[in-house]
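Why does residue order matter? Because the sequence determines the fold. Keep that principle in mind as you read this record.
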Amino acid sequence: MGDKSAQPDPRCAEFYLPGGGTACLLIHGFAGSPAEMRGMGEYLAARGLTVLGVRLAGHGTTPEDMAGTGWREWVASAERALSSLLVKKAVFAAGLSMGAVIALHLSTRYPVRGVIAMAPALFLGNWKASLVPAIKLFRQWHYFDGSSDLTDSTARSGPACPK
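Structure:
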């Protein structure tokens, strides 16, 4: 189901929660990991659903792993996970942000029963967004210097992956 890149922190790995005949594929967002979907997965599993939280190719390990992948590999990861559920189950696809867009894409190609699209990025209205690909010519990625609450260790102490 996952990719063959560096091993993710166990908190960032895919998860499978067995349940009944209805399943839900959970797809995390860009630069995220299955950890951001685990709470929803546990909620659904407690209500009898089979749940698979997929880890998209290149995600949940290192920036270098992610830089070596693109949307085709991310969709392929989700397709493999979905195929494993479709064998025996009625399946819903749920995703967050980019994962929501992938879930919508999957629904056009596979017999999913429904889609839960949480905060899908369907349209970028700001013209400056078109400049984002050029940024990688000057800076490949950025590590926060501590001035942001994104690096607050108490914020990361939950189910999210460590930096």
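The domain at 10-122 is CATH 3.40.50.1820 (Rossmann fold).
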